[in-house]
Amino acid sequence: MHSKMDLGTIAYDEVEHINETNQRLVQELNTGAHTQTEIRQLVSQITNERIDETTEIRLPFHTDFGRNLHIGESVFINANAMFTDLGGIYIGDHVLIGPNVTIASVNHRMVPADRRNLDLASVHIHNNAWLGANVTVTPGVSIGENAVVAAGAVVTRDVPDNMVVAGVPARMVKKIDEKGV
Predict the structure, then answer these.
(1) Could you give the CA distance from residue 29 to residue 1 in angstroms, rounded to a whole number?
(2) pLDDT value at position 10?
(3) Residue 124 catalytic?
């Protein structure tokens, strides 16, 4: 999904209202000691969706909006993950997200007079994908089922199922066979 959101509109104001509430919840989440159950409960409040008991989230956890972040079952999210989710981030089941990963579904416009306005493009991380440490995923990208994104990669294009990508920008390195080789 690709869409636009302009500063000073009703939609933008609604986002800011939700953001005020969610940023307090994110601060509460990241400034105390919490059990996994408590973490899932707080993240459920932030996303307005139930986080499955099979999902594990390490703190700190960051999101700039929260309501457009969708997390599947048996997901592992390591510390310092950042989700810029206003455009929508969809994380499938059994996904592994390494430390310091950034997933962005929002971009600003190039024209200086329009720079504060937003372009939104959803990101899809399909089942059983693995994003290594310090990966950046840019707006509009889809990462295929069983795909692996090597540590430090910057993903600017779709990653096919069963493919390993690496580098800046990420390039296909090899296909994963049934044995994982």
Answers:
(1) 30
(2) 86
(3) no
